[in-house]
Amino acid sequence: MSETTIESILQETRLFYPPSEFAQEAEINSLKAYEEHYAEAKADPQAFWAKLAQKELHWFKKWDQVLDWQPPFAKWFVGGKLNISYNCLDRHLTTPRRNKAAIIWEGEPGDSRTLTYAQLHREVCQFANSMKQLGVKKGDRVGIYMPMIPEAAIAMLACARIGAPHSVVFGGFSAEALKDRLEDAQAKLVITADGGFRKDKAVPLKAQVDLALEHGAPTVENVIVVQRTKEPITMVEGRDHWWHDLQKTSSPHCPAEIMDSEDTLFILYTSGSTGKPKGVVHTTGGYNLYTHMTSKWVFDLKETDVYWCTADVGWITGHSYIVYGPLSNGATSLMYEGAPRASNPGCFWDVIEKYGVNIFYTAPTAIRAFIKMGEDIPNARDLSSLRLLGTVGEPINPEAWMWYHRVIGAERCPIVDTWWQTETGGIMVTALPGAIPTKPGSATRPFPGIIVDVVDKQGNPVPDNTGGYLVVKYPWPSMLRTVYGNPERFRKTYWEEIPHIDGQPVYFAGDSVRRDEDGYFWIMGRVDDVMNVAGHRLGSMELESALKSHPGVAESGVIGIPDEIKGEEIVAFVILKNDFSPSDDLVKELKQHVMEEIGAIARPGEIYFTDVLPKTRSGKIVRRFLRQIAAGQEIVGDRSTVEDPTVLDKLEAEIREKH
Ligand code: PRX
């Protein structure tokens, strides 16, 4: 096999058709309908998007040109004028949606709030005026560092309304990380809260902002603070303002700024494999259209649905699929402040029962945590309102998919496994739930208008069922426009890794993938997590998935360490389910199990049992630390990427003890 392809050997053959009752009600209601849309879009992507932009969005002025493509820089709907907050709010007010719930919010302590479209519009306008009072203007960058409360969405929409690009920083990031991002974006204003509730604790936020501003970010002139936890905080005279005080004197009338389609809507920072986090830039028109269409077709939104995405607004998923996509469609979007916690591990299921949630979108890591807690917890709640399930963020192992399907979906709900990235702005590869049969572990097929391919490092197509690199061959409306302040990094990271194909540059996603004989995509993991064992390149996800299919394994992290003979040796870190205990026999059994699942080449050289794994705040295992620990090296690199950095020392001590 060529060195530049990636071996993929995990085969999954189960196929689940969309239930006919579901398909009957769906807008894209058969495989044929999907294929027709796909073919139409492929034949003339610009005409396809233009037709939808005309039909689905409100424009103050129509565009002059659909796409201006000067690789790698794309402009969509050139000359078009619109405002995404107008599309998410104002246009619903003259329809029966006026008094429909736009946001249903549940706080961790059990408090709750519902905002209709009319109420949300009013709050957004008022807050837009509050920002104006402080001198914020179109083009100024605004940092948002908030818990999951409605004010987070209000702040984002208000920024969009006045044309001030927001940069949301996840509330779990440290003061240092916040400072770096505010500095890079040169933010003028920060919107925060005293704190938020998470896992039975009041987590301070304003104190972190104070620290960040003590150490840097000199462009920040003002801080607006929402009172949430009522814990004591310091307010700096002249700089810090209470949200509720400003709102008192702000008018609820604020016309939406006329924005150019290519005006920046937001900057969102995401980590790359090297260097500082990148400020991913998204603009207005293309992003509005693409998140609107994907929300509509992937989540099959109906007028009466209660839709819940469990992400945090600090991540792209929260931007696109809690705020902009659902609200542009006039949907009811549920926001939840908390996380499953000791005092209530079943809180998600309580929320579903309480509000009659119909569509539930979460991450595989959450699903695996639920599996570990046991199915009695969800089984004790009424989840019969659910009709559609989704996952995002990482490959879902077939065992977790099956559990989700059986225990949460009662074998009735289609599952959409959605592959995309901060950079893509919206969902790229996914099932359309009334049209595309699903296979556990596969994100299935590209969304209409998305031309993806699997190629080797030289850009040559690879045969079906052979791993390769995922590339996108034609610009799409919500693609990142650049890396903020660093167009060269944008070009190098995404457009130069793979040589031109047919004379055209292609977008390199950084993921390895396999396409099967049915045209289904199986994401294997980040390219940097690929191992080469005795000439075979293996995706770490496949190994982890294989381990997790053993009844004793709750979670696992697999990496390669240097090996004299094989190039790399596979090392697995395994968290066992509660009713299994570590033993030499179990090590043998697991090695045997992986051999059976994948093949002899995938047999791990070492298996370490542990009860913790280093994970980012978004739940991804940080394998580079596992590599260092397994190789007995000193831990180097930015520990703050790990949610709980003490895990690293603990793991290191455990491994040392075993040697
Ligand atoms: O490796 C892929 C993985 O998450 C990466 C993007 O991460 P981020 O920008 O943080 O965005 C996450 C939410 C969209 C991808 O390069 N990933 C995301 N979704 C999936 C996935 N891997 C497999 N299957 C998915 N459904």
UniProtKB/TrEMBL annotation:
<keyword id="KW-0007">Acetylation</keyword>
<feature type="binding site">
    <location>
        <position position="317"/>
    </location>
    <ligand>
        <name>CoA</name>
    </ligand>
</feature>
<dbReference type="GO" id="GO:0005524">
    <property type="term" value="F:ATP binding"/>
</dbReference>
<dbReference type="InterPro" id="IPR042099">
    <property type="entry name" value="ANL_N_sf"/>
</dbReference>
<feature type="binding site">
    <location>
        <position position="526"/>
    </location>
    <ligand>
        <name>ATP</name>
    </ligand>
</feature>
<dbReference type="GO" id="GO:0003987">
    <property type="term" value="F:acetate-CoA ligase activity"/>
</dbReference>
<dbReference type="GO" id="GO:0016208">
    <property type="term" value="F:AMP binding"/>
</dbReference>
<feature type="modified residue" description="N6-acetyllysine">
    <location>
        <position position="620"/>
    </location>
</feature>
<dbReference type="GO" id="GO:0019427">
    <property type="term" value="P:acetyl-CoA biosynthetic process from acetate"/>
</dbReference>
<keyword id="KW-0436">Ligase</keyword>
<protein>
    <recommendedName>
        <fullName>Acetyl-coenzyme A synthetase</fullName>
        <ecNumber>6.2.1.1</ecNumber>
    </recommendedName>
</protein>
<feature type="binding site">
    <location>
        <begin position="393"/>
        <end position="395"/>
    </location>
    <ligand>
        <name>ATP</name>
    </ligand>
</feature>
<dbReference type="InterPro" id="IPR032387">
    <property type="entry name" value="ACAS_N"/>
</dbReference>
<comment type="function">
    <text>Catalyzes the conversion of acetate into acetyl-CoA (AcCoA), an essential intermediate at the junction of anabolic and catabolic pathways. AcsA undergoes a two-step reaction. In the first half reaction, AcsA combines acetate with ATP to form acetyl-adenylate (AcAMP) intermediate. In the second half reaction, it can then transfer the acetyl group from AcAMP to the sulfhydryl group of CoA, forming the product AcCoA.</text>
</comment>
<dbReference type="InterPro" id="IPR011904">
    <property type="entry name" value="Ac_CoA_lig"/>
</dbReference>
<feature type="binding site">
    <location>
        <position position="537"/>
    </location>
    <ligand>
        <name>ATP</name>
    </ligand>
</feature>
<feature type="binding site">
    <location>
        <begin position="417"/>
        <end position="422"/>
    </location>
    <ligand>
        <name>ATP</name>
    </ligand>
</feature>
<dbReference type="GO" id="GO:0005829">
    <property type="term" value="C:cytosol"/>
</dbReference>
<keyword id="KW-0460">Magnesium</keyword>
<keyword id="KW-0547">Nucleotide-binding</keyword>
<dbReference type="InterPro" id="IPR025110">
    <property type="entry name" value="AMP-bd_C"/>
</dbReference>
<dbReference type="GO" id="GO:0046872">
    <property type="term" value="F:metal ion binding"/>
</dbReference>
<dbReference type="Pfam" id="PF16177">
    <property type="entry name" value="ACAS_N"/>
</dbReference>
<dbReference type="Pfam" id="PF00501">
    <property type="entry name" value="AMP-binding"/>
</dbReference>
<feature type="binding site">
    <location>
        <position position="511"/>
    </location>
    <ligand>
        <name>ATP</name>
    </ligand>
</feature>
<keyword id="KW-0479">Metal-binding</keyword>
<feature type="domain" description="AMP-binding enzyme C-terminal">
    <location>
        <begin position="542"/>
        <end position="620"/>
    </location>
</feature>
<dbReference type="InterPro" id="IPR045851">
    <property type="entry name" value="AMP-bd_C_sf"/>
</dbReference>
<feature type="domain" description="Acetyl-coenzyme A synthetase N-terminal">
    <location>
        <begin position="34"/>
        <end position="88"/>
    </location>
</feature>
<dbReference type="Pfam" id="PF13193">
    <property type="entry name" value="AMP-binding_C"/>
</dbReference>
<comment type="similarity">
    <text>Belongs to the ATP-dependent AMP-binding enzyme family.</text>
</comment>
<feature type="binding site">
    <location>
        <begin position="198"/>
        <end position="201"/>
    </location>
    <ligand>
        <name>CoA</name>
    </ligand>
</feature>
<feature type="binding site">
    <location>
        <position position="550"/>
    </location>
    <ligand>
        <name>Mg(2+)</name>
    </ligand>
</feature>
<feature type="binding site">
    <location>
        <position position="553"/>
    </location>
    <ligand>
        <name>Mg(2+)</name>
    </ligand>
</feature>
<feature type="domain" description="AMP-dependent synthetase/ligase">
    <location>
        <begin position="98"/>
        <end position="476"/>
    </location>
</feature>
<dbReference type="InterPro" id="IPR000873">
    <property type="entry name" value="AMP-dep_synth/lig_dom"/>
</dbReference>
<keyword id="KW-0067">ATP-binding</keyword>
<dbReference type="InterPro" id="IPR020845">
    <property type="entry name" value="AMP-binding_CS"/>
</dbReference>
